[in-house]
Amino acid sequence: MRRLPWRAAKLTGIRQETATARTLVFTIPGWPGHLAGQHVDVRLTAPDGYSTERSYSVAAPERGDRVELTVELVEDGEVSPYLLEVLEVGDEVEIRGPVGGWFVWRPERATPVLLVGGGSGVVPLMAMIRARRAAGSSAPFRLIYSVREPDQRFYLDELADPQPGLDITYIFTRKTPDGWDRAPGRITAADLDGVSPGTDSYVCGPTGFVEAAADHLIALGHAPDRIRTERFGPTGG
């Protein structure tokens, strides 16, 4: 199997998402393209030759040589503090990809889709939502997005812009907005009820969140092979 090459990626744009997360826009000459749901590896190399790398989900569908990554700061991490606090527009890193072929959504598929995201696990799901809009797809989409507090939601302004056929539900585990009708708490089977078992489900987030959501879906009658999961855990950032 041919090994994917590392490519020079120049930072060309930055968008603030939350107090601790930004979307970084890179231009990568020769980029082969990607699908919504795939990820890339980012490598940093110090002057003394020491290098380290981390994987990040792509946050937007293919747009030529442009790749968007939404990165959340990991305290005491090696990579995310550099990307968010040191890297400036015009600087370069190395990126390899795209990686992954299972956790992807293709615009030609018209089956209803359930997206379940925990924290920064919403990033590849947002790529799917954006791909749906760009393709003019009529596939029904439902996003269930769980975060600790309201100000930790990514892409808030964009998701507030109505998109026909896209239904969005927020779950807050620690603190809710004033007047919210659901008490703070983790995702439950009731939050996922009412979704047709014929739906394609994509679940992404921390391991415990993903396992709980997948178990709830199976208990509600969803076939395991229709539930695609992607999980992350402590990586050192």
UniProtKB/TrEMBL annotation:
Its cofactor is FAD. Gene3D superfamilies: Nucleotide-binding domain of ferredoxin-NADP reductase (FNR) module, Translation factors. Coiled coil: none annotated. The keyword Iron applies. Keywords: 2Fe-2S, Iron, Iron-sulfur, Metal-binding. PANTHER family: NADH OXIDOREDUCTASE HCR, PROTEIN RFBI. InterPro entries: Cbr1-like_FAD-bd_dom, FAD-bd_FR_type, FNR_nucleotide-bd, MRET, OxRdtase_FAD/NAD-bd, Riboflavin_synthase-like_b-brl. GO terms for molecular function: 2 iron, 2 sulfur cluster binding; oxidoreductase activity. It comes from the Bacteria. Residues 4-105 form the FAD-binding FR-type domain. PROSITE patterns: FAD_FR. The keyword Protein transport does not apply. Transmembrane segments: none annotated. The lineage of its organism: Bacteria, Bacillati, Actinomycetota, Actinomycetes, Streptosporangiales. This is Oxidoreductase.
